[in-house]
Amino acid sequence: MEQFTGKVWLLGDDIDTDIIIPTEYLALKTVKDMAPFGFSPLRPELAAKIQPGDIIVAGKNFGCGSSREQAPEVIKALGVRAVIARSYARIFFRNAINNGLLLIENDTLCDDVKEGDEITVNVGESIEYNGKSYPISSLPGNLLDILEAGGLVKAMQKLNGISVD
Into how many domains does the chain fold? Predict the structure, then answer.
């Protein structure tokens, strides 16, 4: 079982893909170029403050809106280790997994946690915060394999014995 600890960035309900990465930045050449503009309609300063290993905690319907793959790619490029939300838009959930971004569903953490606090995630088991344990569901093995490989393309390359540097 994998365990990690990270600083929390707290967001609300219905964080759509236009908030995660606004349309006008999709024309930039790379996801790395887009990353500084992540979440800019909601909190222009947020992308610059996120550090590798940080965790986003949000309410319901995270990733709603368009099916743009750049949304989970930008979150991953910012160094976010995981997103924990009440619920996700289905296409965003699959795009995130396919890009190697861990998503966790939990109904109550977003009501209890404070921005800037640290939480510990025991993947597939629980989230630990302020002495309380929040149970989480485990992901199916095939999705864990994709996450562990860093995304669907890398997982398929590994499965097929293809080495890409």
Answer: 1
